[in-house]
Specification:
The complex is a heterodimer. Helix content of chain A is 64%, strand content 0%. By secondary structure, chain A is mainly alpha-helical. Chain B has 13 helices and 26 strands. The chains are: A mainly alpha, B alpha+beta. The interface between A and B is small, with 8 and 11 residues.
Amino acid sequence: MSTLNTTPNIARPDDFYAALLATHEGLSKAESDALNARLVLILANHIGDADVLGQALDLAKGEGSRG
Amino acid sequence: MNKIFEIPLYPYTRSPDQDAEAPVRRKVIVVGAGPVGLAAAIDLAQQGVGVVVLDDNDRVSFGSRAICFAKRPLEILDRLGCGEPMVEKGVQWNVGKVFFDDRQVYEFNLLPEQGHRRPAFINLQQYYFEEYLVNRVRELQAGGAPIELRGRNKVLSVEDRGDHAALSVDTPEGEYALEADWLIACDGAGSPIRQMMGLDFVGRVFEDNFLIADVIMEADFPTERWFWFDPPFNRGQSALLHKQPDGVWRIDLQLGWDIDKEEEKKPENVIPRLRAMLGEEVKFDLEWVSIYTFQCRRMEKFRHGRVIFAGDSAHQVSPFGARGANSGLQDTDNLCWKLKLVIEGQAPDSLLDSYDVERIHGADENILNSSRSTDFITPKSEMSRIFRDAVLDLSERVDFARPLVNSGRLSVPCTYDGSPLNGPDCAAMPSRTRPGSPAVDAPVGGGWLLSRLGDGFRLLTIDAEAPEALEEGGIAATRLALSARGAPELAERYLGAAKSAVYLVRPDQHVAARWETYDEAAVRAALNTAAGRA
C-alpha cells in the first residue's frame, strides 16, 4: 500500500503559499470555491493512487495521522 | 390510426379455471405482463414449464416508458426467440454528447467491441418491446407451448401456504380462486403483491421531479444521446434528448422538487419548455407526457417462500443508466432455469435462494451506480454542486475529468462473483469470462457463440477433448465443441494464456466453472454445485 507523504515536500513553501493566495486574488467567494474544487480534482488525478487519496481524505477530515 | 398501446392485445376471455369446483393448481403463475413478466413466462414455457400470466390490464404499456435496452438483455431475448424484431425496429446509437450551460463540453463514443452479434444498446419504446413479447407468446401457443395470458385478471389477495400460493383474482365476470406451486410477482415498483404480503421496500428517496415528453418531429438532430447540465432552457436543472423509432424523441427535463405536477403536465406548460429547448422553428407533436419521481431501493429478500419477486417489484433504481427493465430481464434469466430444475425435482428448493444471492448482488450494483449518477446529475448540497460544476468545467479542457462526468453509467451485466453456484476457476484464462460472468459473445464458424450455447447446461470445449454429453443426477450437460483456430475473438475471450479450455456454462449462459482440460470428476462436482446440490 502506498503511503501519503506527510513530511515537508515543497521546496519553497512561502513561494507556493503566496502563489496559492495570488491565484484566488480578486475572486468572489463562489469563484474561489469553484477554483478550489477544480484544484482538488486536478491534484487528485495527479496522485491517482486510491490508497493515497483515501489517506489524504482522512487527514483532511481530521481522522488521519498528524505526521 | 390507433396506437399499439390503445389496442387490447390480450382481451379478457373466460377461463375454465373460473368455473372449476375447487381452485385449480397451476405450476407457475406470473403476475404482471410487462417486459419482465412476459420474459419470465416465455422462458418457462419454451422449456416446457406450464405458466399462466395474469394482468389487470389487457394492452401494452401506455407511453414509451423504458426505452433503452442493453446488449445483455438483447442476448437474453435472443435466447427467448424474440431478439431479432427488437433489434430490427430499434434505433442503434453510439455517440453521446454532454453539454454544460450553453456549450458542448465533450463527446463520447461507446465504441462497441467488435465480434458481438448485438449492439451495446438499442432504443425502443416499451410498447413495441411488449408487443414483440406478446407476439412471441402467441407463437409459442401456436406451437402448443403451455402458456396463457389472461387480461383483466386482477389479483386481489395472495397467501403463501408453504407448499403453494393461493390467490383470489377479480375479472369483469367476477372473482375466482386460483393456486400456484410458484408465483412470480412482476407487478412493478408499486407491486400490489408486495403490499398484500406486507413486505418491506426500503431505500433512498430522491426529492426531484422529471418531466418526460415523447415528441414526434422531423428534426435533423443526429442519432445520439444528448445530455445537458444546467442549460439556458432549463436553468439549474438537467435535460436529455434521445431518439426512438418512428421519429419519436424522448425528452427528459428535470423540474425540481416543489412543483405542481398536474399543472406541469398540461400541454400549455410543456410546449413552451420544449420550444425553448428545440428552437422556435422546430415543428413537433406531443405523443406522451409524464412526470416521474424515483427512489433507489430494494426488498431485503426477493424470495418469500413460494412467492418470488422480479424486476421493479423487487428493486427500483433511478432511470439514469437504463438499469430498470434491463436488470429485470436479468432477474428472470437467472430465476427461470432454477425454478424449472426445482419443479422437475432435479434440484433442491434451496437452489432458489441463490436467486436471492445473485440478483441482490445485481440490484445492489445497480442501486449504487444509479444513486451515484443521480447525485452527480442532481447535486443535493452546495458543495456537491461546486464539485459537479468543477468536473464539467474541466471536462471541456482536460481529458482526465471526462470519466468523472456521470450522466448515467449505462447498464452492463453483473458478474456473480462469490456466488455459491460458482465452481473452480483457471487463472490462465481471461478475467471477463471467470465463473459467475455472463458468457461473452464471439463469432464462431459463421454464427455466434451465444446462439450455439442456447439454454441448457453446456460443456463448451475449445481445442479440448470431452464426451458429447454428461449426465449427473438427471441433469444433462451437452458439449459444444469449438476450436480457437480461425476464431481470434473466441481465443482472446476464453483462452487467454491457456492452450485449451473446458467451460461449464449454466442455462442462463453464465459461466459456472472452467478448466484447461476435461476432468470428469471435477465437471460432475461443478455441475452439482451449479445446481445447488453441493
